[in-house]
Amino acid sequence: MRPKRKVKISPPAETAAGLKSIQTVAYRIWEETHVGKGVKTLFKLNQPNGFDCPSCAWPDPDANKVSKIAEYCENGAKAVAWEGSANTIEPSFFEQYSINDLLEKSDHWLEKQGRLTQPMVLKSGDTHYSPITWEAAFSLIATQLLALDHPDQAIFYTSGRTSNEAAFLYQCFVRQYGTNNLPDCSNMCHEASGKALTDTVGIGKASVVLNDIPKADLLIVMGQNPGTNAPRMLTAMEELKNNGGKIISVNPLPETGLLQFRHPQKPWEWIGKPTSIHDLHLQVKVNGDLPLMKALLKMLLEAEKNAPGEVFDTAFIAEFTVGYEALRQHIETTNLAEMIQESGVPEKQIREAASLIIGKKNIIIAWAMGITQHRNAENTIREIVNILLLKGAIGKPGAGTLPVRGHSNVQGDRTMGVWEKMPDSFMQRLGNAFNFKPPINEGVHAVGAIQAMVDGKGKVFMGMGGNFALAAPDTNIVFEGLKQCALTFHVSTKLNRSHLIHGKTALILPCLGRTEEDISNNGPQFVSTEDTAGRVRRSHGDLKPVSPDLKSEVAIVCDMAKAVLGKENPTDWEGMSEDYGLIRDKIAEVIPGFEDYNERIKVAGGFYLPNGARERNFNTPDKKARLTVNPVNFNKNPETPFILMTVRSHDQFNTTIYGYDDRYRGISNSREVVMMNKDDMNQYGCKAGDLVKLTSVFEGEKRILEGFQVVPYDISPGCLSVYFPEGNVLVALGNNSEESHCPASKYIEVFLEKMDNGSDE
Ligand SMILES: Nc1nc2c(c(=O)[nH]1)N[C@H]1C(S)=C(S)[C@@H](COP(=O)(O)OP(=O)(O)OC[C@H]3O[C@@H](n4cnc5c(=O)[nH]c(N)nc54)[C@H](O)[C@@H]3O)O[C@H]1N2
Ligand SMILES: Nc1nc2c(c(=O)[nH]1)N[C@H]1C(S)=C(S)[C@@H](COP(=O)(O)OP(=O)(O)OC[C@H]3O[C@@H](n4cnc5c(=O)[nH]c(N)nc54)[C@H](O)[C@@H]3O)O[C@H]1N2
Ligand SMILES: [Mo]
């Protein structure tokens, strides 16, 4: 066996961003779009009168602080260039390539073919997609949806790029049709954060805003790779450092963005010394975070006992929290040595971290997928909250919770009601506003949706954006589920594997992207989005659409609703698709915090949604923040030698693969690699480039990934890392977080075998 592409290995980069990233971006823009178009578009990125960057959900600076230079980063620029591609896929493309031909192509190749331009259909038994009119496509959808025995046989997935306006109408249509089956990418992403934060502080979102970060004395970044996945966060971290703040990173990998940084938009810094980012790096074992937090809590409690009231914020604890005594007793009985051992971090470093926490009052803890994609994710996040609450570090400037959201509007989609179990209060207001009775059965989440399809209970699958087939866990099982559907259809900008792993009939509905102008019969329309800090702002694309046949996501939902719900349906779908202001009026009626939406969205920079935790108004049943006791129980089979995590490279956006180079990690030309600690390599007799076989075992079932090339890497011993989505075949469907069913994509128990015919062949 030979690797498809031979990996090239060089030392990881020491500094993130800087001149090189600008060059990379310029090259991409040049390659993907017309030069003039690309540069002009970059200047509109995240400006108050421009469009919201379609990459990540990191907040923009306040309107009065926005510099003349566009607020963008390398990966935002890549996302814009990728969407604004001058390449298009015309019907002749599908004449040329059958589904089988396309299945042979890489995911990089599929998206690289350019933007989808016309609705396409794959009729039962066809080998090629062929053109279909929009009208015929909607009538096909209506026929199939109305033929089901029950609306719960249909599944309506959402990825996180959909605007507030489109998401609101979409969930409204789905519920009027009769189901709560609204799984979304958040189910596989920050679901555990939402759950654990709502339990403890009464709101599932971040309690801090962008301006809080430079005010913090201490920022702890856990399970996140901001240099790649939220590069603009580095700017805020640099400001914090310049103000004298400290940063602790907690990660099994020493990620480049956490080491040193050169501001990509400050040319005068390109030659000078980079800002050194972290003060302390705690190289945990994969999922060593919960024991690490416990060890820290133990050290904090000891210090508090020696100097009562000087470590913990006792006044805050007394006034705003419940559960202190139970937590204190739990920590008293926790075995420190065991926790240190389980965390994988040397005691000396944990003590250093503890002393930083002891000495600081304004603390922010940020986290992302390295914390949420675990079986015990909710417990770890509640433990993070424990530390913040004991320090009184929430609801004041420079302190609080910071779950860093992924997709640019994933948080907004949830606020708009894209969730399988919205609370009763929302359902009642939605029903009143649109004069219908919303369904009461809880819908399926992402894992539940896969199970329903495999069991034959889910028969129609719709994707509002995204690439479910590849993003979801347990690739082979997802494929099986999608293939047994009667109809699968997707609203998309680019071709991806979900269009090829199809039901009996399939449709591709091409839509406008974030960067493109959206003009209805009523004139230009704009949409709005919500960032990680809960700020809602307008987004106004201004590029000419790549094809006159594209529809906006809003128009697609409205046309679909008209076709499915029929002429008698009282909702003004037609009016709303022509005037998005009417949608915002309805949102204002249904969702608290959006009062006067149409007026407030006009203000440059937008407005913040209410956030109780930010005001120390904890919306839990007893109106207090909850300190909690969280057992350490990983349920790991003691026999499995490795824990494998799946991570993003610097050259991808989720399943969109921009290229084969992970520049910061020094891994290039291949994604079929496994990062491995040198001691483990020695023990297994592996050299760089050797091919290995990985076998995950879950509840007795084996899943296999073969022919991956070993890359020696500074990763905690006993831990391995492969890229997402290639690693998804190894993530068993049942391997998900206990309370919110988030796939444990960072906790895969695996065996590793060196393959005989390795790289020497
Ligand atoms: N350019 C770009 N930007 C993106 C995305 C993208 O693909 N590309 N994706 C977007 C989306 S949807 C999301 S959700 C975010 C994701 O942003 P991240 O969460 O930064 O993404 P991952 O690559 O999954 O990185 C997880 C990090 O956690 C670490 N980690 C893994 N397991 C553990 C663990 O057990 N403990 C700790 N402490 N650390 C661990 C890994 O080493 C890695 O550094 O980024 C968003 N932004
Ligand atoms: N093993 C493993 N699995 C994971 C993860 C992991 O870390 N490890 N991460 C999980 C996470 S955090 C997430 S968020 C999910 C991501 O899951 P998804 O959101 O489903 O996947 P994406 O790759 O972001 O979707 C890419 C597709 O979206 C479409 N698209 C792009 N822009 C637009 C637009 O403006 N409108 C519409 N309608 N379509 C558009 C394009 O056709 C593109 O091909 O994956 C999850 N899966
Ligand atoms: Mo995500």
Automatic annotation (TrEMBL):
Keywords: 4Fe-4S, Iron, Iron-sulfur, Metal-binding, Molybdenum, Oxidoreductase. Its cofactor is [4Fe-4S] cluster; Mo-bis(molybdopterin guanine dinucleotide). GO terms for cellular component: membrane. One of its GO terms (biological process) is cellular respiration. One of its GO terms (molecular function) is 4 iron, 4 sulfur cluster binding. It holds the Pfam family Molybdopterin. Residues 642-728 form the Molybdopterin dinucleotide-binding domain. Residues 115-487 form the Molybdopterin oxidoreductase domain. Gene3D superfamilies: 2.40.40.20, 3.40.50.740, Dimethylsulfoxide Reductase, domain 2 (3.40.228.10). NCBIfam families: Fdhalpha-like. PANTHER family: PROTEIN YDEP (PTHR43105:SF4), RESPIRATORY NITRATE REDUCTASE (PTHR43105). Belongs to the prokaryotic molybdopterin-containing oxidoreductase family. This is Formate dehydrogenase.
